[in-house]
Amino acid sequence: MSRIERYEAPDEALASLPGDPAAHEEPALARKPRFQPGLLTSWLFLLLMAGWALAPGLFAFHDPLAGIPAQKLRPPSIEHLFGTDQLGRDLYARVVHGAALSLQATALAVAVGLAIGSAIGLLAGFVRGWVDVLTMRILDAMMAVPGLLTSLAVIVVLGFGTINVAIAVGISAVATFARIMRADVLRATTSPVIEAAVIMGAGRWHMLARHVIPHSLGSVVALAALEFASAILAVSALSFLGFGAAPPQPEWGSLIATGRNYMVVAPWLTVAPGLVIMLCMLSANRISQSMDRNLS
């Protein structure tokens, strides 16, 4: 047999080797699921937010852009659940329709950070050597700068707008995703099952796709849920500063920015969208904790 030819170990044999995390997992039937009302409430609230973002017309029947001057600054009531703003526009309708821009920007930001950061972390942890050293020094420099300042720098280059805000927030989260992915890849590549696969002659690409990536995604997926909460706050903060969609398009951050001028006479203009943002963050954090326990 030529020295170029190598034995490709069957997946079943590798999966049964000592040290394989899958071999020590507790059977799914032996686990006792517990009812967690907080987790269920978090999922239901985020599903409601998704409904607001995808089909706002099913949840709000007022026009978010048309106002009635005679009804300006009305307090919350049955007709106007969140009250009205300074132009007589229904605040509940504006918050519901604002979910489309705010949550779509948040989802895009998390997707950008997850895709780019995971690819960088996978490359650094699997290749190692000077690639790993250089990558880590760049990531250290990125993490030394606050995320909001990084986002502002990217916006200066790209310009204003909801899409640019999402890209900027996603780029600021790349370093966090990359470091977590690199750590999981390093742990996976030094496990006994990977060392056994190398001894048996498993190819690098086969080993990467079959063993390294599946055992490195748990923490990154849980981090994506956690970063979703941070991205909501970052997107809203940049919108509050005026870098998001142009008026009169509603965004959660811009709604708070407008309502701060009427804090004394109409506090609901800031309280209502602020509570929605806070509940979204708390729900995403709760789901992230659950995912971290189940996937890690």
TrEMBL record:
Pfam families: BPD_transp_1 (PF00528). Residues 99-288 form the ABC transmembrane type-1 domain. The chain crosses the membrane at residues 39-61, 105-127, 148-173, 185-205, 217-245, 265-284. It is a multi-pass membrane protein. It is found in: Cell membrane. InterPro entries: BP-dependent_transpt_permease, MetI-like, MetI-like_sf. Residues 1-28 are annotated as: Disordered. Signal peptide: none annotated. Keywords: Cell membrane, Membrane, Transmembrane, Transmembrane helix, Transport. It comes from the Bacteria. Belongs to the binding-protein-dependent transport system permease family. PANTHER family: OLIGOPEPTIDE TRANSPORT SYSTEM PERMEASE PROTEIN APPC, PEPTIDE ABC TRANSPORTER PERMEASE PROTEIN. This is ABC transporter permease.
